[in-house]
């Protein structure tokens, strides 16, 4: 259908000319990268008219609607504006940005990274100047610290507003009260922030200093010298001991291990916990003594510094030998900085330092995350500022613009400035610290760590949860489940049959080898000489098990038994190979599972070095195989191979295993592989296809010469090497298909069900293949049994994507499964439509996703829906996704700690996410909203009373409460009860988990929007309170004492009315605040006059104790609180919240 889509409409002459010119330019570029680009431009240009095509067209319309193409508007051809018209229509902006970019480039002028030649032990021979090898994680230096911290604070409108208000107090005409009433709160906020940042910065400085001053042994002509990590230079020869950190990127020259290889731990670099095998350069490893490194003239040619930690191209050259020795260097000859030596002592030559090391180039500065509540508060602050300006203008207008009205306007702005309370920021930040502490102290989710303390309330507002599969939903613990030979399949219950077959076949071979009959030898070789003869099941099983036991990158490691000195050499020397002392190390848990399985059926891997490996048969005989070549697994090739020579028969065999998509074209024709791969994938098993090819000596020698030649080339090395290896990958004999199960994490199903009931949409983003991902989605109940699954067909062009999206649009309430390649195509042409359709699905599974694609999907969701997203993962490949989401959660798993260190919250098991969101997310959001509301109320009440006071006093811009009263009101008198709201909870934790539907209410964001309704009531309360005071004109001189006391009591009562679950600390806070106020009445009597319009009578203690004072204060308090209480009571009766039905 898609083939018939007319993608070549008639084009206007202008477009044709332009594309012709472009084509000419790219063809002139020669057959390099330009050639490929030309094709891409052409396609883009020709498919452009589809831009205006409506997505929902019938298929016939899509095919036949050619007439529209001629009339479509061309977005790209626009008349170029010239001169003044260009400058006015945005040209000025273009000029400004160009100038700024030029200035930045001049200031920062980055040095261009180049390939380099590094002479062994001669740093002085370096032509270029390379960066210092110092680690620097500090955000600021001595000069930028204060400006940097202040900028971070004052970029928020709230803080900037206070700075301006406080600065205006230095103008005598605008001075309202004492300076400390404005500067003390602002100073406190800044002092807390600066202190916190300074402590963090000092800790970073100490960590950096500790790393930079670590001592290493440097090899010189005069012997070993101790040198600091920060003083290491390119070209130095550095010795790194076991369990020591590698200080810079090096090429591995020598090791104390006899095999010429060592293991390193890379969990700090790529998040993988498995050890990696590294190989020393054979030319330098063969030198008799360490000092001989200075007696040879040799250099390393290294490519320019790059981001990719999994590849390296270089050459090692020794000039003083005849002929010169050239050796190719790859990733296995490198030791990257920040990795740790796990075995032996290594010597390397430094090739990259400081900012040019792989680890530093791969660290991105994570963005500062700001919670939705903080953004809403910032918007509300702006709205309140507008209200403040309007109120001040009204006051000046009622004054009749008399006298210097603009000065009065500013004075009113300052008088009412308490509408926006500065204590809001302090209260919320302290609240967040408390929530973080509560999360970490929760015994039901042990090991949880809050790494970003600024966004705990985000956990209560999530709509999308994007999760990784391996290690997050599954345990990343592989168990061998199935072996399929084409005609016969073995499961867990029939493994003993395989064991018997292996035992018999080795006993047979052993007896033949020891037999006296000379004709026994040809009998044994019959299968290889005449492959057309159908093999018995027993021999096929024997071949398959042997292939699985040989084709891998696993190394057995034996723990030393005697102290620290007898390392692996001891275990190797005595050839004991005891089973309980052996552990397997590999970069993939799948491989370890396969080797464990071959051990269980009788064929055990007992030792391995660079040149050979040894297998122990069920009879106890040790077979040796020499490793001739090794082709490691890559994500591009999706397969790995090995060429081995059997010591006893000298037979050369090429074994290969890999994913079915890669292997199906390599193996000989068969009719069962594809079907069985599908069957295993539906069971949730990870499949690997194993194949072999027997090589003659001539074939191998020819291959080796071509392979060595390809490995030495500098340009396009990977392509040339891949081409040589592919020449071997033809007509391979298919041996078997293996199935390995990755078990689900504990309680994954109930947790996913709880999240779904809470209204959270779950997307699974995985690098695994489509069938396995679909199967895990079903088994984990990510997709419920009754739901349909729409598997998005692979699409490569725009037309196919168009038709497939239309087909998907017709489906209703079904889960979507899409692969990374199809996703890329759809996002290129129909980004908005795809996201819109996917958001309507109950669940989405994206398979074959790269780490950058995962992050891109998160960003798209945030941009298109405006809803809060959460990403959860456990490996280094999930870090970009975790950092892109509004809220990132990392799991400490088999793949290391990289994800958990980069995340905002770190948990130990997936099931903990349920309690984290339902209980802590709910409480943090609800409490922060209540806290924010109350702090706002405090400011509004004061400002309202000031407004009424000023209007009664002929609109005079005179403060009602002065000095310490204002500071005390925001802090000591009301702070404790208001802050005690962080202990309040509307629903018990058990209820919140039992009824996850309650979470849906939170995502609507109503908890904070209630503030608007309450604000109106605060205004009314202020007016009632002051209106009542106007009625008592006889004691008007005591207005400050009466109103302020009523105000404090009202605040304390309002907090008490709001609390839903009482805590003993809340009661203490209420009485403590009241006690503080009563005690301070005696000391602060000079403040209780009416500002500067003093009536000559100040507060006396005798008046406070009179019944008149007490009943008036009580009356005003009741009048102001009663309407609010009645309103809340009615609201709860008429429109009860969903949780009230449960709590009753």
From TrEMBL:
> Which superkingdom heads the taxonomic lineage of this protein's source?
Eukaryota
Q: Annotated region Disordered: where?
A: 511-536
Gene3D superfamilies documented for this protein:
Calcium-transporting ATPase, cytoplasmic domain N, Calcium-transporting ATPase, cytoplasmic transduction domain A, HAD superfamily/HAD-like
Entry's EC annotation: 7.6.2.1
Subcellular localization(s) per the UniProt record: Golgi apparatus, trans-Golgi network membrane; Membrane
Q: What top-level class of enzyme does the UniProt entry assign?
A: translocase
- Domain annotation P-type ATPase N-terminal: ranges: 127-183
The UniProt entry annotates the active site at 468 (4-aspartylphosphate intermediate)
Q: Which residues cross the membrane?
A: 383-403, 409-428, 935-957, 963-983, 1007-1030, 1036-1057, 1064-1084, 1104-1127
* Predominant localisation class: Golgi
The GO cellular component terms are:
endosome; perinuclear region of cytoplasm; plasma membrane; trans-Golgi network
| UniProt similarity note | Belongs to the cation transport ATPase (P-type) (TC 3.A.3) family. Type IV subfamily.
Q: Tell me which PANTHER family the record gives.
A: PHOSPHOLIPID-TRANSPORTING ATPASE IIB-RELATED, PROBABLE PHOSPHOLIPID-TRANSPORTING ATPASE
Q: What is this protein called?
A: Phospholipid-transporting ATPase
Its source organism is: Nannospalax galili (Northern Israeli blind subterranean mole rat)
Which taxonomic lineage does the organism of this UniProt entry have?
A: Eukaryota, Metazoa, Chordata, Craniata, Vertebrata
């Amino acid at each position: 259908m898609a083939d018939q889509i007319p993608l070549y409409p008639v084009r206007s002459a202008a477009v044709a000319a332009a594309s012709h010119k472009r084509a000419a330019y790219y063809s002139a570029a020669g057959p390099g990268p330009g050639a490929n680009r030309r094709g891409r431009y052409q396609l883009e240009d020709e498919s452009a008219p589809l831009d205006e095509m409506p997505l929902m067209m019938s298929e016939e319309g899509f095919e036949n609607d050619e007439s529209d193409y001629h009339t479509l508007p061309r977005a790209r051809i626009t008349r170029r504006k010239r001169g003044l018209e260009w400058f006015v229509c945005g040209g000025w902006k273009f000029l400004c940005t160009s100038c700024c970019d030029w200035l930045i480039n001049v200031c920062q002028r980055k040095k261009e990274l180049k390939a380099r030649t590094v002479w062994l032990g001669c740093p002085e021979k370096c032509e270029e100047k390379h960066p210092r090898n110092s680690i620097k994680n500090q955000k600021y230096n001595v000069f930028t610290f204060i400006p940097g911290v202040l900028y971070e604070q004052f970029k928020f409108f709230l803080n900037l507003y206070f700075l301006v208000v406080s600065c205006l107090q230095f103008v005598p005409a605008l001075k309202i009260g004492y300076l400390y009433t404005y500067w003390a709160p602002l100073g406190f906020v800044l002092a807390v922030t600066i202190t916190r940042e300074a402590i963090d910065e000092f800790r970073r400085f100490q960590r950096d200093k500790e790393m930079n001053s670590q001592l290493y042994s440097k090899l010189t002509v005069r012997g070993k010298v101790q040198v600091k990590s920060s003083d290491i230079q390119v070209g130095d020869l550095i010795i790194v001991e076991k369990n020591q950190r590698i200080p810079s990127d090096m090429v591995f020259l020598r090791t104390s291990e006899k095999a010429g290889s060592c293991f390193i731990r890379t969990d700090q670099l790529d998040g993988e916990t498995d050890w990696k095998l590294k190989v020393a350069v054979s030319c330098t490893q063969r030198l008799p003594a360490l000092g001989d490194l200075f007696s040879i003239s040799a250099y390393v040619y290294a490519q320019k510094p790059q981001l990719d930690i999994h590849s390296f191209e270089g050459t090692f050259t020794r000039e003083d030998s005849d002929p010169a020795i050239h050796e190719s260097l790859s990733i296995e000859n490198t030791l990257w900085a920040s990795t740790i030596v796990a075995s032996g002592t290594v010597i390397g030559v430094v090739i990259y330092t400081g900012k040019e090391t792989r680890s530093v180039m791969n660290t991105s500065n994570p963005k500062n995350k700001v919670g939705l509540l903080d953004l809403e508060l910032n918007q509300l602050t702006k709205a309140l500022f507008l209200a403040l300006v309007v109120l001040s203008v009204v006051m000046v207008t009622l004054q009749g613009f008399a006298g210097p009205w603009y000065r009065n306007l500013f004075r009113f702005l300052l008088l009412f400035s308490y509408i926006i309370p500065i204590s809001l920021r302090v209260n919320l930040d302290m609240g967040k610290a408390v929530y973080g502490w509560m999360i970490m102290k929760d015994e039901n989710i042990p090991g949880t760590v809050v790494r970003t303390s600024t966004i705990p309330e985000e956990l209560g507002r999530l709509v999308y949860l994007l999760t990784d599969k391996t290690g997050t939903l599954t345990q990343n613990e592989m168990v061998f489940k199935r072996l399929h030979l084409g005609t016969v399949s073995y499961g867990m219950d029939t493994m003993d049959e395989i064991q018997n077959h292996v035992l018999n076949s080795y006993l047979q071979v052993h007896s033949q080898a020891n037999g006296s009959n000379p004709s026994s030898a040809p009998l044994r070789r019959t299968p290889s000489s005449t492959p057309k003869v159908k093999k018995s099941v027993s021999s096929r099983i024997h071949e398959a098990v042997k292939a699985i036991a040989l084709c891998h990158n696993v190394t057995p490691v034996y723990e030393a038994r005697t102290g620290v000195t007898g390392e692996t050499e001891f275990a190797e020397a005595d050839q004991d190979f005891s089973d309980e002392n052996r552990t397997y190390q590999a970069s993939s848990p799948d491989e370890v599972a396969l080797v464990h399985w071959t051990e269980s059926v009788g064929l055990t891997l007992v030792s391995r070095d660079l040149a050979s490996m040894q297998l122990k048969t069920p009879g106890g005989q040790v077979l040796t195989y020499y490793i001739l070549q090794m082709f490691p697994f890559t994500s591009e090739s999706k397969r790995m191979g090995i060429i081995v020579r059997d010591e006893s028969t000298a037979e050369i065999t090429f074994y290969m295993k890999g994913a079915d998509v890669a292997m199906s074209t390599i193996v000989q024709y068969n009719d069962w592989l594809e079907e069985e791969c599908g069957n295993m994938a539906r069971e949730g098993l990870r499949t690997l296809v194993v194949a072999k090819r027997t090589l003659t000596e001539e074939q191998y020698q020819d291959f080796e010469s071509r392979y060595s030649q390809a490995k030495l080339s500098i340009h396009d090395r990977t392509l040339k090497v891949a081409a040589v290896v592919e020449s071997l990958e033809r007509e391979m004999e298919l041996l078997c298909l293996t199935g390995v199960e990755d078990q689900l994490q504990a309680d994954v199903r109930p947790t996913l069900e709880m999240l779904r009931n809470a209204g959270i949409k779950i997307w699974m983003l995985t690098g695994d293949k489509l069938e396995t991902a679909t199967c895990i989605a079903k088994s984990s109940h990510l997709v419920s049994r009754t739901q349909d699954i729409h598997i998005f067909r692979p699409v490569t062009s725009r037309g196919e994507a168009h038709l497939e999206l239309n087909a998907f649009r017709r489906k209703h309430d079904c889960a979507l499964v899409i692969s990374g390649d199809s996703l890329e195509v759809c996002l290129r042409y129909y980004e908005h439509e795809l996201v819109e359709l996917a958001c309507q699905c109950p669940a989405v599974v994206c398979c074959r996703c790269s780490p950058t694609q995962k992050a891109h999907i998160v960003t798209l969701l945030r941009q298109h829906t405006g809803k809060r997203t959460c990403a959860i993962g456990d490996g280094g490949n999930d870090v970009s996704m975790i950092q892109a989401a509004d809220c990132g959660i990392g799991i400490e798993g088999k793949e290391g700690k990289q994800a958990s260190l980069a995340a905002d919250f770190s948990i130990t098991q997936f099931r903990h996410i349920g309690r984290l969101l339902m209980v802590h997310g709910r409480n943090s959001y609800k409490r922060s909203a209540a806290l924010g509301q109350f702090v706002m109320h405090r400011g509004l009440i004061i400002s309202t009373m000031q407004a009424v006071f000023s209007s009664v006093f002929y609109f005079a811009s005179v403060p009602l409460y002065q000095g310490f009263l204002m500071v005390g009101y925001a802090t000591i008198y009301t702070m404790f009860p208001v802050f005690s709201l962080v202990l309040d909870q509307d629903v018990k934790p058990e209820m919140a988990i039992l009824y996850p539907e309650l979470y849906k209410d939170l995502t609507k964001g109503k908890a904070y929007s209630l503030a608007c309704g309450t604000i109106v009531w605060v205004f009314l309360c202020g007016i009632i309170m002051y209106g009542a005071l106007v009625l008592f004109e006889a004691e008007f001189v005591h207005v400050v004492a009466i109103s302020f006391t009523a105000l404090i009591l009202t605040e304390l009562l309002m907090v008490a009315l709001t609390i839903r679950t009482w805590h003993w600390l809340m009661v203490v806070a209420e009485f403590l605040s009241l006690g503080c106020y009563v005690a301070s009445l005696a000391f602060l009597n000079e403040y209780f006059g009416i500002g500067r319009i003093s009536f000559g009578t100040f507060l006396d203690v005798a008046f406070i104790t009179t019944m008149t004072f007490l009943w008036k204060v009580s009356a005003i308090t009741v009048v102001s609180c009663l309407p609010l209480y009645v309103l809340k009571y009615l609201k709860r009766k008429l429109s009860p919240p969903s949780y009230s039905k449960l709590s009753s």
